Amino acid sequence: MADVVRCGWCGTDPLYVKYHDEEWGKPVYDDQTLFEFLILEGAQAGLSWITILKRREGYRKAFAGFDVEKVAAFNEKDEERLMNDTGIIRNRLKVKAAINNAKLFIAIQKEFGSFADYMWGFLPDKKPIQNPIRTLKDIPARTEISDAISKDMKKRGFKFFGTTICYAHMQATGMVNDHVADCICR
User: Fold this and answer.
1) Which of 6, 130, 158, 163 has the fewest CB atoms within 10 Å of its CB?
2) What does the alpha-carbon distance between residue 63 and residue 120 come to, in Å, rounded to a whole number?
3) Do residues 104 and 158 touch, judged by C-beta distance below 8 A?
4) Do the Cβ atoms of 120 and 147 come closer than 8 Å?
5) Is residue 2 scored above 70 in pLDDT?
6) How do residues 137-154 score in pLDDT, each as one tens digit?
């Protein structure tokens, strides 16, 4: 299958290829998965995605299987445990943000019925946007919609969820399809 075309960003690393083929750009309506990507995308700020992808299982263990209720209940002892966990990126601001964002995630669930309803509510007809991507250069780093979501989330107190991270979250969870036109996943 040497003639299979994928988006160039995933390269040949088997972990990256699997993520590209099985997850990236596939619509997600499950709050636990959306929370997982919220944690992972926040951790990724300033780093490459493969760095986080390689630590995904470490994050899963450290953050209670991405159980939002459990993460929201983390205390200072948990924060110190996380700061000593070599399976994750040990950045205190990111750790504190993950715990704080979990509490805010629950508040959004209570207000909107689910985090998915909140996020997808920013999209026209709550349907994925199919961007016309010919080359990797055509993929935006942010859009007006990611600006609006990020602004609203920042107003609610979320950290490490600026417009670029928000757009990456939208790509990861299939709110936008940014696979290049000839990609097998398009």
Assistant:
1) 130
2) 25
3) yes
4) no
5) no
6) 999 999 999 999 999 999
Tell me the CA distances in angstroms from 10 to 16, 122, 154, 169, one per residue in order: 5, 28, 30, 16
Cα radius of gyration rounded to whole Å, the chain? 16
Task: Give start and end residues of each alpha helix (H) in 45-91.
Answer: 49-53, 56-62, 68-72, 76-83
Average pLDDT, the chain: 96
The residue among 185, 177, 186 whose CA lies nearest residue 27 is: 177
Record the tokens describing residue 124, joined without a space.
Answer: 């026209």
- Distance between CA atoms of residues 161 and 168, nearest Å: 10
Q: Beta-carbon neighbour count of residue 93 at 10 Å?
A: 11
How large a percentage of the chain has pLDDT more than 90? Answer: 97
Confidence at residue 36, expressed as pLDDT on a 0 to 100 scale: 98
Which 3 state secondary structure label does DSSP give 144?
helix
**Residue among 141, 52, 43, 20 nearest 96 (CA):** 43
Looking up tokens 């299987």 gives 65
The average pLDDT across 155-165 equals 97
* Closest to 175 in 3D by CA, of 138, 135, 126, 133: 126
Identify how many contiguous H helices and E strands the chain contains and give both numbers: 10, 2
